[in-house]
# Entry
Amino acid sequence: MAGEVVMIVEDNERNRKLVRRVLEKKGFQVVEVESGEAAIDAAREHPLRMVLMDYHLPGIDGIETFRRLRADATVPRMPIVAVTASAMPEDVQSMRDAGFDAVQTKPINVKELLATIEQLLSRE
# Structure
């Protein structure tokens, strides 16, 4: 997993910083963006292995960004994890129904997040 590129799509700087530090400590390279539109552009430009994406984003939300990434033939298929403060069962279910590979709720549990990343990347 070391050296692989993970994109963080998060408009909150503190959350981005936390996830970046965790990923870099594990040897990942990190691409950071703050909006869904920027995520689509970055996914076309970088050799990503995974996307960790906030649900509530400025502009298009996480579900719409997810749909656009999956529909874009220029973006390789990779695991996309929803990271959200919307922990209500119906919100989590809507993200699962949309097709996200996993859902992580905030506040972020670092051990859970790393276990999810490892599990998803080991499937590929």
Q: What stands out?
A: Residues 5-123 form a domain with the Rossmann fold fold (CATH 3.40.50.2300). The chain has a mean pLDDT of 93. The first helix runs from residue 13 to 25.
